[in-house]
């Protein structure tokens, strides 16, 4: 028994005859008759009596049609649910981000996405890049943003953004009067540094070594936002991803370009199965829109 034969039977019951059913289903009357005969043979009873060229439902046909209608209602629900899934995915989305993008850029994307999809539940976590990678690789999260030093085996990945590092310091710091900060300016200043394994920290160490500069490191941390907060507290000077200080979330700091240029590099990660719902596509678009907006505001 196949769904096409059931559709033919239902069309005959609704339209009152084989000719009308053929028009309803955009097929030929002989095809309708063959489908009906096949269904009756499979069921083992007649669905219609043939009286003077007309199809009159038998008692069995009427009982069977009641079951068909009930099941077609369920099928309509499935079609409706399929349409909803096509439009908004499964109704939830799971996002993880490294800290540098997790407090300014991603919340912007979440807010914009939620205004367009208020019915969608968002699970959001700010974690270290290695944890973000693991969450995405396992399929536990749909989208991840991570630094480029993570192991990218087992995930789909592409470059998301490569902003230039900026120097942050207390707003009353003597170097705040400079238009650009160089390694020579930092000299023996108290320095707030990223963790030794960070790619920007490694690039910074190389530049300082080439210049013969040995900054006095006060704090090492994996989080640029921590460096910016400590700078606001008057502790020292440091290099951060400009997205860390997006929307002027941290007051009391001065921000200056650093030369030579050092670039942060973050990746957007997807699970290895590569399944892409409309939800994921829409949220990814909001991430890129937030990135472009913040870069344009600088």
Question: What can you tell me about this protein's structure?
Answer:
By secondary structure, this protein is of the alpha/beta class. It has helices at about 5-15, 20-25, 30-45, 60-90, 100, 105-115, 130-135, 185, 200-210, 225-230, 280-295; strands at about 50, 55, 90-95, 120-125, 145, 155-160, 165-170, 190-195, 215-220, 235-240, 255, 265-270. It is about 45% helix and about 20% strand. A hairpin with a 2-residue loop joins strand 1 (about 50) and strand 2. Helix 1 crosses helix 3 and helix 2 (about 20-25) packs across helix 3 (about 30-45). The mean pLDDT is about 90.
Brief digest:
The protein is an alpha/beta fold and 298 residues long. Helix content is 46%, strand content 20%.
Considering the chains and any ligands shown, give keywords for the structure.
single chain, 298 residues, Arc Repressor Mutant, subunit A, D-Maltodextrin-Binding Protein, domain 2, 3 domains, 5-stranded mixed sheet, 11 helices, 20% strand, transcription, LysR_subst-bd, LysR substrate-binding domain-containing protein, LysR_HTH_N
Work out the number of β strands. Answer: 12
CATH topology of the largest domain: D-Maltodextrin-Binding Protein, domain 2
**Mind telling me which CATH architecture of the largest domain this is?**
3-Layer(aba) Sandwich
What is the CATH top level name of the largest domain?
Answer: Alpha Beta
Total domain units:
3
Strand content: 15-25%
N- to C-terminal separation? 65 Å
Instruction: Tell me the series of helices and strands, N- to C-terminal.
Output: HHHEEHEHHEHEEEHEHEHEEEH
Q: Structural class from helices and strands? A: alpha/beta
Largest sheet strand order: 4-3-5-12-6
Number of helices: 11
CATH superfamily of the largest domain, called what?
Periplasmic binding protein-like II
What radius of gyration results from the CA coordinates? 32 Å
Low-confidence stretches: none
**How does the major sheet shape up?**
5 strands, mixed
Give the integer mean of the pLDDT values.
89
* Global geometry: rod-shaped
The helical percent reads 40-55%
